[in-house]
Amino acid sequence: MKQLAPTALLGQRFARIAACCLLACSLQAQAGIKDVSQEELAQLIANATGTAPTLKLNSAVQGSTVIFARLTRTGQAAPNGIGLCYSSTNPEPTVLDNYTLTTYSNNGFIYAMENLKPATVYYIRAFGIGANWKVGYSKPIKLYTLPKGNTSYWYENNGDDATNKRIIAAADDAIKYWNNVTGHTKNFSLSIHYVYGAGAGGGAGTADCSHGGYMRVGGNPSYQRTGTIMHEGSHGLGVIGWDNGYSPTNWIGSIYRSNNTRGTWLGDRVDRVMHFLENNNTAVLNGDYQHMWPYGINGAGEDNGTPILYYANALIVGALGEDNLPLWGYDFAKPAYTFEQDDTLKYYIKNADEDHGLRTSYLRENASRALRWQAGLSDDILANDSFAWHITFNPASCYYTFKNVATGNTIIYNGTTFRTAVSPSSDQKRLQLLAARETSKVGTYNFATKSYWITEPNGSKAMNAGDNEATNAADFDHANSATTQRWFLMTPTEVDRFGSRVGDKAVGIQPIQHHTDAQGALMVGGGHGFVAITATSDNADVQIVSLGGQLVKTVYVTRGNTATIQLPRGIYIVGGHKVAVK
Fold first, then answer.
1. 213 CB neighbour count, 10 Å cutoff
2. Collapsing DSSP states into helix, strand and coil, what is residue 526?
3. How would residue 16 be classed by pLDDT, with cut points 50, 70 and 90?
4. pLDDT value for 253
5. SS3 per residue for 320-332
6. Domains in the chain: ranges and CATH
7. pLDDT by residue (tens digit) across 74-96?
8. Is it the case that residue 246 has pLDDT exceeding 80?
9. Residues 138, 71: contact at Cβ < 8 Å?
10. Residue 462 contacts residue 454 (beta carbons within 8 Å)
11. Of residues 246, 381, 248, the one with CA closest to residue 326
C-alpha cells in the first residue's frame, strides 16, 4: 500500500472539513429538524453557534399510549423546530433520543407524544432549535403511561349497509380512544344495537346507554358517530345518575359534586385534566344528572369530529375513575400515578391533622414494626433513617410501595392495620395514593404538594393517625375534614424548610442530642406550646426546669419513645439544655 506524504494527509483533512462545512450550510437552508437525518442532526447540533431558545414545559397529562404537554418559549426564536423530546431510559432526553412536533389546537397548542408503550416510564423535555441549530431544553419531568385498556364491543349488525358501516366505524374509533387514553378498563364491553327511534328527541331518534354497556343507536346518521358512542359509552362506564340494577355510581348524590347532587365535580385528577385542556388553572368540570361539560359531546351538535375532542373526552372519563367515580369493573378509585416521586430520594411522611403531629411529627417504624407518628427536630429527623422512606411506583399495576430506608421493611395492610413487614406478598404491599382536593398550609407556610390518602387497593381502609402517636386502619373517608387520614410526602429539602418556617427552627430551638450518665441519650426539641423529649438509648427521668430555676415537671421517657409535654410560652431547661417554647 502506498503511504501518503504528510502534505497529502493534511490536504485530505482540509477537504473533509470543507465538505462538513458545505453540508452544514446546505442543511441550515432547509426547513428544520424534520428534514434532516439523525446523523445530520447530531452534526448540526455539535457545530451549533449562537444563543439557544428558552423553553418551559408547563403541564402534562398522560394516557396509555399518549402523553400531552403544553410549553412556552421565550428569548430566541426556534425556526428549526419546537416540540417535545422524550426517552424511557434517559432522564435528560434530547432530540437525538426521540422527539415530536405534533400539535393540536385547543385553547393554545397542545403537543402530543403518540404511539408510546403502555405502562412505561417516560422522561420528557420541551425543546426549541434556534436559527443556527443551538438547542434549548426545559427541565425534565417524569410520567408513567397507563396500562392499556381492553374495552371491546359487540354490534348486532341489524341496520342497512350504510348504517352498519357508520356505527361500526364509530365504535372502532371510540374503542381505540378509550384503550389508548383511558387505560386499564377492566373487561368492559359495549353491546350495541341499532334501534330506530331510540333515545330522546322523537323521530329517527338519537342514542342511549345503560350502566353496564347496553347501547341503542337511533336512525339519525348524525348520532351514528364516534362522539355519540363515547358519550353514551361513558354512561355505561359510570357517568350516570342511577345504578340500573348494577353497582351505584358516585356521579350524583356524593361528596364529589359541589351541591351533593350536580354541579362542579370536586376531584383532584379531573381538575388536573381540566386545567390542562382549558389552559386555565381555575377551570372545572360541570354536570347535571347524567351529562358533563365541556368535552361531554352531549349531542350531535357538539361532535366536531376532531381527535383532540375525543382525546379530551377519554382523558376526563379516565380522570373521573381516578377520582373515585367507580368505572365499570372498579369498586374504588382506579389506581394511577398521582404522586410524582423520585426512586432515589428519601421521603418523610407527616400527618395533616393539627392534633396528630402536623407541626411536630413524622412517621417512623419502631422495633416491633408498628408505624408511629413521632415528634422530633427537623435536623434529627433527617439524620434518622427510621423516619425515611423510599417510594416506588409499579406502572403495570399503578400502585405504590413504601420501604423504610433504615430496615428495608415495607408498609403493608395486613387485613387489620397498616404496619411494616420484612417480606410481604405483592398484594400486601400495594398502596394507592389519592390527592386531597385542597391545598394545605400552616399559618403562612404553604406545603409544596397536596396531602394524600394512603389506602389499601380496595379502598375500604385508609392509614389513619390515631391517638398517642399510634396509627391504625380507618374506614376511608374522602371528605376534606378527614385530616387524620391524609399524609404529606416530603423531601429532605421540604422537611428542612418546614422546620425553618414552622417547626423547631422558627422558634429558636437548636437540635440537641447529648449524653449524660443520669438520663442516657436524648433528643429534645420544642415548638408551638410543647416540648418533645425522645429517649434514644435508655429509659430516662427528665427534669423540665423554668429559666428561673423552678422545677416544672419530671417526665419518665422509655427508650425509643417520645413524650410531648404541653407548656406555656417561655424558655425552659430540659435535660440540662435550653429550649424555647413559643
1. 22
2. strand
3. very low
4. 83
5. HHHCCCCCCCCCC
6. 33-144 (2.60.40.10), 152-322 (no CATH), 348-501 (2.80.10.50), 507-581 (2.60.40)
7. 999 999 999 999 999 999 999 99
8. no
9. yes
10. yes
11. 248
